[in-house]
Design goal:
The chain has 1 helix and 28 strands. The chain has one helix at residues 3-21, and strands at 29-33, 39-41, 45-52, 58-65, 68-73, 79-82, 89-99, 102-113, 119-130, 137-143, 146-151, 158-163, 169-174, 181-187, 190-195, 200-205, 210-216, 226-228, 233-236, 242-245, 252-256, 268-274, 277-282, 287-291, 298-303, 322-328, 333-338, 343-351.
C-alpha cells in the first residue's frame, strides 16, 4: 500500500471516529408520564420525565399543552404538575429543552378526560308520524312547523321540505348523481347542506328554496353532521372532531372532541342543538350522545336500542339505522327517525 493511500485511509478513519463521538441533540429526548396510557382527568396531577439517548447538560425545560405554557423547570425526571385545558380530548404535550449545546423539542399526545361518567337516559314514545321510506336520512331540522330533511346515497340524494304530520314532500331538490348528501342546518334564512366525500357543501335560500351557493371544506376531512346554536355552526366529519365553523365563510375555526371519563369518541353523524347541548347520533349505534359544545364533555347517553323494533322489518341493520334528530324549539318537542324508516317518532327523554 502506498503512503498516499495509507494517509487517505487514516484520514477517513479519523472522520468516522470523530462523527461517531459527536452528540446528536435532535430526537434525543422522549417524554414519559405517570398517567395510565397517557390519559388523565382534566386538571389532574401528572409526573413527567424526559428519557435521553445521550447525556446533555440541561439548562431549562418549558412544557406547553397545545401551545399553552404549563410550567418551566430544570428537572428532567419526575417533574410533577397538573394538566388542564378548556376543552377535553387529545392534546399535544411539548417539551422545549434548552441545553449548553442548543435547543430541541420532544412531544407526547395526552388525553384529557371528563371527570364523570355519562348519565344514561331512556325514552318514551309520545307520537308517531309517517316517514318516506325512500329517504336515507342524513340531516333533519325544524324551522317553525316545517321539517327540512337531507337524504343521502349516490344518484338519490335530495333536500326536502316536509309536512312532518303527514310525511308529505312539499318541495324537493335533487342533487347531482356525483354527490352523497349528508347533514343540514338552517341559520339566518339559509339552508346549509353537506356532502360526504365530495369536499362540497351547498347553500340554499330558505324562503325561495333555491340553491344560491356552495362552499369547500378546509381542515375537516369529510361532511357528516351539521347543527347550529344561532351563532356558530357545528360540523362533524367522521373523526373525533366536531368543528366550529364561521357562519360567514364556513371555515373551520376550532374544534371539540366528545370525551367521557374513559375515552374520546368518533363517528358522530346527525347533529342537533337542543337546549344548550349538542345531541348526536353515532353511526350504527342506537343512541344519542349529549355533548357540551364548550368543552366536548360527553355528559349523557339516550338509550334507543329498542326503537328500531318499532319500524318496518327487513331493514339492513348495518346501514338503515337510527339517524335523524330534530328539536321543535317553539313547542319543546324532540323527534327522531332513521334511514329508510317508515316512522318519524316524537319522544320524551326520561330518567332511567
Amino acid at each position: 500500500m502506498t503512503l498516499h493511500k495509507s494517509l487517505i485511509l487514516f484520514t477517513i478513519t479519523l472522520i468516522i471516529a470523530s462523527c461517531g463521538g459527536e452528540k446528536n441533540l435532535d430526537t434525543n429526548y422522549t417524554i414519559t408520564t405517570t398517567a395510565n396510557n397517557n390519559s388523565l382527568v382534566n386538571g389532574g396531577a401528572i409526573a413527567i420525565s424526559l428519557k435521553a439517548k445521550q447525556n446533555f447538560v440541561i439548562d431549562s425545560i418549558v412544557y406547553t399543552l397545545d401551545g399553552q405554557k404549563v410550567a418551566s423547570t430544570n428537572q428532567a425526571s419526575n417533574f410533577k404538575t397538573n394538566l388542564e385545558s378548556t376543552t377535553l380530548g387529545h392534546k399535544q404535550l411539548k417539551a422545549t429543552i434548552y441545553t449548553e449545546d442548543g435547543t430541541t423539542t420532544a412531544g407526547q399526545q395526552i388525553t384529557l378526560l371528563h371527570n364523570k361518567a355519562p348519565k344514561v337516559y331512556g325514552y318514551r314514545i309520545v307520537n308517531r308520524f309517517p316517514h318516506q321510506t325512500d329517504a336515507y336520512t342524513q340531516g333533519l331540522e325544524f324551522v317553525g312547523d316545517t321539517l327540512y330533511e337531507s337524504n343521502g346515497e349516490y344518484n338519490k340524494s335530495t333536500l326536502r321540505k316536509l309536512d312532518y304530520q303527514t310525511g308529505e314532500v312539499l318541495e324537493e331538490i335533487a342533487l347531482g348523481s356525483q354527490y352523497f348528501a349528508e347533514g343540514l342546518t338552517v341559520l339566518n334564512d339559509k339552508i346549509y347542506q353537506l356532502t360526504w366525500k365530495e369536499n362540497t357543501g351547498f347553500i340554499y335560500d330558505l324562503n325561495s328554496f333555491e340553491k344560491t351557493g356552495s362552499f369547500a371544506y378546509g381542515k375537516s376531512q369529510q361532511g357528516w353532521g351539521l347543527c347550529n346554536d344561532g351563532t356558530t355552526i357545528y360540523k362533524s366529519d367522521g373523526t373525533s372532531k366536531i368543528w366550529l365553523l364561521d357562519p360567514e365563510n364556513l371555515t373551520e375555526q376550532s374544534f371539540i372532541e366528545p370525551t367521557d371519563n374513559k375515552r374520546v369518541y368518533k363517528k358522530f353523524n346527525e347533529l342537533e342543538y337542543v337546549k344548550g347541548k349538542i345531541y348526536a347520533n353515532t353511526y350504527q349505534l342506537p343512541s344519542i350522545a349529549i355533548i357540551d359544545p364548550k368543552t366536548g364533555a360527553l355528559e349523557g347517553i339516550i338509550d334507543l336500542k329498542s326503537l328500531p323494533a318499532q319500524v318496518q322489518s327487513g331493514l339492513d341493520n348495518q346501514n338503515e339505522v337510527l339517524n335523524g334528530i330534530a328539536f321543535k324549539t317553539n313547542e319543546n318537542r324532540l323527534f327522531v327517525t332513521g334511514k329508510h324508516w317508515n316512522t318519524l317518532f316524537e319522544i320524551e327523554v326520561v330518567e332511567k
